[in-house]
């Protein structure tokens, strides 16, 4: 069984298969009988819960409050904002009826044709429309602004090709929707929330991200600007990990949301929206994990430390447990999540493989000889380094090791990412090299034509115009036309 | 504006209207453009979040883990369990298509008739079917049991008559689903979770509940036993506030879920499910609140203490704020949520009325004279008692007052409930008295006929056979037949 656990596709053999295997074998998620929808298993959900809790705290620190808006949105709402409907028309689930027909024996169930809805309802793919329809009633004067709402919910986009966490028809996310009196304030809020996402990705997930602004083609449907954080996976592909949109007055105009300014004159309200989803789970898995399984950042690991006794007989187990108990207590007092696994039905070897697969950051093991020598075995999951250390001071050692792992996996991911960001000025060279992954910093003439040509010929897309990059003008590598800035081009998930 | 806030229907005039008014005026929720679906506003959602956090903690203490299962369930799954489909067939939302059709200008959107789903999908009204279809793959041997999963999610039941929180087409809830090797273990789990609900209702919501078992007619569709907690509202009506079901092997048989026991023989798995929903918000509002607005239990109040400075000019405000700051800091250090409302745009009188309406448990106010005299005004929301006290020791006073309010509102609700529980042995008397509300303890012959007759003639239903009641046999008040126990009969929400 321990061997079976280890029987994971190697990243070098097939990165994509390695990911799919790992999601299932580490008990994170599985496919469901509903096309494109997944079941998030308890271990996977526990990681998502930790993400939620931290993000929620960070949102609230910026003044955001949670609320809840309906799952179903009247179809007509989508038509109000022209770009929005064009963006989402092809991927919505539509509720047309509200009743099954049940036969006496309960064996056959038909949709009752008489229970057709007057207006069809869409399962929300995103909630701008119903929220702005609501804000109309909440906003009258400048005193009512800003409104800073967020909701944690499920959304549905009928995707043709799905992969667990990365792209599923139903997914869990948060969507923030803010309303402001001025353009400047809304723009600032959109950028503030992007910074929250970047801070979360780097300091909690240990995932380095590049912040930037999307090209017009890649913007959210209805936005004037879409800001993004882009992470690099171990195959050099990009994963868009969170977006924040400056929506201008588009939704305010579509839903007629005005406020009276301090001069008592009506003005349209300015908007932002921003979201991250269970897609972050995909980034977390793909950035850190290895051929032995998951590698989790300590700050998001459901179990931070696992302790396995290696005993001969019950008496020795009692001795080991008695020796370990104060350590378990002290670690828990420090707020560290400890699992003591003395389950006799599973062998230590199986447990070791299983916790490696599940990415538990630190593993302690204690056997008979350790008891005699006052030692304990400690292993860190990120480097798989194992050593036998003195039992005294183990609490301090574990605490420091958790901090070090958190830092180390981020540094490792950043070093990998930095080593795979290239400036490139030659399209032929680009076409050849982009196949192997990486982020390419290339001058772009700003036209959708060039963007489309690159995508068609290389499957790579413009990820963003990066913020933290000193720009110099140049020449578009494809069209030869003048370009004001370099953009990041990469293949992506 | 303060007057408008107070313009709440009186309970004595129209209890039902008072409730509807209060939900809107206290900013808890509002109707949405989607029939029967509500928008939970930030203040209402903040209360629900506190409920969720506490319940989630209590569930986890019993070993339960969270997971997430799909929103959409294949129609055929519902047919597998005969009673289940009969119970839910009339109230489901059905997804038949997965795509809109968009025209060029974005103005018209039609459902694309070519994108009809092969199998229609139901928006979950509850998730037993898809969860037991999943458990089939998770359960092989006795070693895989028990499975203790919960999910926090939205569900949809197409209700014809809706009221905010009490009965809405979409609502938020948690649904726990457990799988066990033995009947005894499953029965014990169903009862354990009922006790968790009762403890939460009484110790956190301050709502006294009667625990008991439902009659066969009132059971959950597919259950062998449904346990319930029943609370009494201020109009004497019952509100079913949480249910826990012993499902026997019904779903295991429908979805063919067996395990190999220790003798390596296959047996069907035993099941429970249990849930509470945003309906609890209705109970919370109706049990404690009064003609001035909400009364919230301190343990669930988003703001526990509000402090309002009553200043003349900015200089005095600075003095008051400087004096109060250490108190604010000390209260927050004790984990108490404090709002200091020095917003100059609103008058103190408006603030007082608003925080009363919103049920903030303790209000402090400090003016110029208080500064001189080293005093402060304190008001408790439950009794509306107001007094001027010494500033010294205010932190301790507030802390104790919060504890006292939590206790007092529970005691008050329990005294009211206890004063409205009656033994009754005469059907004519019952018919007359039940109009005025109250719980009636009556002997029942155990037949569905008698139950139906009572319901038809009085609109009252059997709420449960209560646990904590010393039963003596007697004679059914309606049929005159022998009865082994008294049941609780009441009108209900």
UniProtKB/TrEMBL annotation, chains A, B:
<dbReference type="InterPro" id="IPR002314">
    <property type="entry name" value="aa-tRNA-synt_IIb"/>
</dbReference>
<dbReference type="InterPro" id="IPR016061">
    <property type="entry name" value="Pro-tRNA_ligase_II_C"/>
</dbReference>
<keyword id="KW-0963">Cytoplasm</keyword>
<protein>
    <recommendedName>
        <fullName>Proline--tRNA ligase</fullName>
        <ecNumber>6.1.1.15</ecNumber>
    </recommendedName>
</protein>
<dbReference type="GO" id="GO:0005737">
    <property type="term" value="C:cytoplasm"/>
</dbReference>
<dbReference type="GO" id="GO:0017101">
    <property type="term" value="C:aminoacyl-tRNA synthetase multienzyme complex"/>
</dbReference>
<dbReference type="InterPro" id="IPR036621">
    <property type="entry name" value="Anticodon-bd_dom_sf"/>
</dbReference>
<keyword id="KW-0648">Protein biosynthesis</keyword>
<dbReference type="InterPro" id="IPR004499">
    <property type="entry name" value="Pro-tRNA-ligase_IIa_arc-type"/>
</dbReference>
<dbReference type="InterPro" id="IPR006195">
    <property type="entry name" value="aa-tRNA-synth_II"/>
</dbReference>
<dbReference type="GO" id="GO:0006433">
    <property type="term" value="P:prolyl-tRNA aminoacylation"/>
</dbReference>
<keyword id="KW-0067">ATP-binding</keyword>
<dbReference type="InterPro" id="IPR004154">
    <property type="entry name" value="Anticodon-bd"/>
</dbReference>
<comment type="function">
    <text>Catalyzes the attachment of proline to tRNA(Pro) in a two-step reaction: proline is first activated by ATP to form Pro-AMP and then transferred to the acceptor end of tRNA(Pro).</text>
</comment>
<dbReference type="InterPro" id="IPR045864">
    <property type="entry name" value="aa-tRNA-synth_II/BPL/LPL"/>
</dbReference>
<comment type="similarity">
    <text>Belongs to the class-II aminoacyl-tRNA synthetase family. ProS type 3 subfamily.</text>
</comment>
<dbReference type="GO" id="GO:0004827">
    <property type="term" value="F:proline-tRNA ligase activity"/>
</dbReference>
<keyword id="KW-0436">Ligase</keyword>
<dbReference type="InterPro" id="IPR017449">
    <property type="entry name" value="Pro-tRNA_synth_II"/>
</dbReference>
<dbReference type="GO" id="GO:0005524">
    <property type="term" value="F:ATP binding"/>
</dbReference>
<keyword id="KW-0030">Aminoacyl-tRNA synthetase</keyword>
<dbReference type="Pfam" id="PF09180">
    <property type="entry name" value="ProRS-C_1"/>
</dbReference>
<dbReference type="Pfam" id="PF00587">
    <property type="entry name" value="tRNA-synt_2b"/>
</dbReference>
<comment type="subunit">
    <text>Homodimer.</text>
</comment>
<dbReference type="InterPro" id="IPR033721">
    <property type="entry name" value="ProRS_core_arch_euk"/>
</dbReference>
<keyword id="KW-0547">Nucleotide-binding</keyword>
<dbReference type="Pfam" id="PF03129">
    <property type="entry name" value="HGTP_anticodon"/>
</dbReference>
